[in-house]
Each structure stands twice: as C-alpha cells, then as structure tokens.
Amino acid sequence: MKKTTRKNLSIFYIVPAMSILLLFLVIPLIYTLYCSLFNLDYLVKGEFLGLGNYVSLLKNSRVIKSFNFTFMITIVSTALSVIIGLVLALWIDRKEGLFAYLIEMFGLIPWVISMMVAALLWRWLFNGDLGLFNMILRGLGFNPIYVVQNKTSAIIALIFVLVWRLVGYAMIMILAGLKGLDTTLIEAAKIDGASPLQLLRYIKLPLIKTSVLLSTIVLTVSNFTNNTVPKVLTSGGPNDATNVITLYQYNLGFRYYQFGTSAALSIMIMLITSLIIVLYIKLSDYRI
C-alpha cells in the first residue's frame, strides 16, 4: 500500500512540470511540423506541399549562404571563446584572493545580462555618428569608422560581441575543472621535474578535457541559435553579409509572412541543434 501511495505521489509531483513541457514545447513543435508541410503564406492555409518547403529551402542559394555564414561564425566565435576562456582559467587558477574573485565576477557579467541590452549597448558603441568609439576618434582628430556599414568590419564586430558574451562562461566552466584536479598528481609531477608547459600538456589538459568539451558544445549551440545579437547589432547587413540562419528564418515568417517556409526552416535548425545536444549528452557521461 505504501509503495502504491509513493508511486501515485511521484506521478502527482511530475504532472505540473510535464504539463508545462507539453504545453510550451511538444504542442508548438508538432504544430510547427504540421505548418511546415503546407503553403502558409500570410497565415492562409494553402495546398499540402509535403516536403516541398524543405526542398525549396535546400535549393535556395540565400539559405545555403546563410547556413555557411552561420557555421563559420559559430566555429570562429566558439573557438576563440574556448581558447581565451582556457587561458584566463589557467591564469586565475594560479591566483588567490580578491583580485581572482573580481576577475571571475566581471567575466560572468556579459553572460548573465540580457542579450538584447548587451547588443543595444554595442550597437551604440559602434554607431558611426553618435557612438562612443567614434566620439573619441573625432576628439583625437581621426575620421569616424562606420563599423556596421562595412561588410568586413560588421562580421568582425559580430564575432567580437559573441566572443565577449561567451568567454566568461567558458572561463568558469574550465576553471571549475581545474579546481577539481587532484593536487597530488601535480605535486608529484613537479617533484619529478616537470616544467610548467609539461604540466599543462600532460597533466592539466587531459584531466580537464571533459570541461573543455562540454563548454564547447554549450557555446556552439548558443552561437548557432543566436538571433538577438545579429538582429540588433547589424540587422543582417550590409547586403546580407551577417544574415545568420535564425535571422533569415525570423524574416521569412515575420517580415515576408511565409510561415510555412519559415516553419520548415525552423525544423531544419532544430534538427541540427538536436544533433549537437545529443553530442552534449554523450559527452556529459565522459570519464577520464
């Protein structure tokens, strides 16, 4: 009787969470999949297309270009975030006291503040007429730099903001791995005459491999699905130079009102990110 009561209670406890999950995740996902199979321009249900929306997207050169650009900035920004985060974590791990705690705290600020607020801040800083950077340049007698109006500088600015936002997270994740290392191994290696470079290469890096891999997966998903920063910072310009795939999908639905095609593209994005999440789950069980 007690076992039955406990089982019923456990089901009762998880019903609210499962109901919320069903309402806000499963049902919208099923409806999005349903919409992706129809011609749904201006929310007017048209003919059944089956996989027609998916085929048209794969044949669209702008979609392929947007996917390629998204993969590029995802790889570059994630790699830079992890490398800089690793360097900062290794440096902080050797420090103690208030200064180290302050670096950790300030490093996390870009991660915890709203992406919208952060993107608006950087958009103002990069503004060619009223931005702080150009005000300083004018004060020094230099010509202003219109960052988001130039293709190359807009891409660099976008990558910079993505790295600025995520490097603190990578630093904390890797630092947590470093703090969990067995100090006896490091001390034994020092006694055997290992140099700092050898300690890093043969002791520390292999032991924090899990932290590095997991932070890489999390940052990859975050960068690949980030729509807010590109939309606010560059609006996909100039001339679609920074038009990431999530921004392209957003514009399909809410600018051109091609909701069926937009739904199909969102399913494609979901499948790609799901593959990354599966990899994350696999790596979460990784053991040295």
TrEMBL record:
It is found in: Cell membrane. GO terms for cellular component: plasma membrane. It comes from Hungatella hathewayi WAL-18680. Residues 67-280 form the ABC transmembrane type-1 domain. Keywords: Cell membrane, Membrane, Transmembrane, Transmembrane helix, Transport. It is a multi-pass membrane protein. Belongs to the binding-protein-dependent transport system permease family. The chain crosses the membrane at residues 12-34, 69-92, 99-125, 154-178, 256-281. Pfam families: BPD_transp_1 (PF00528). InterPro entries: ABC_transporter_permease, MetI-like, MetI-like_sf. GO terms for biological process: transmembrane transport. This is ABC transmembrane type-1 domain-containing protein.
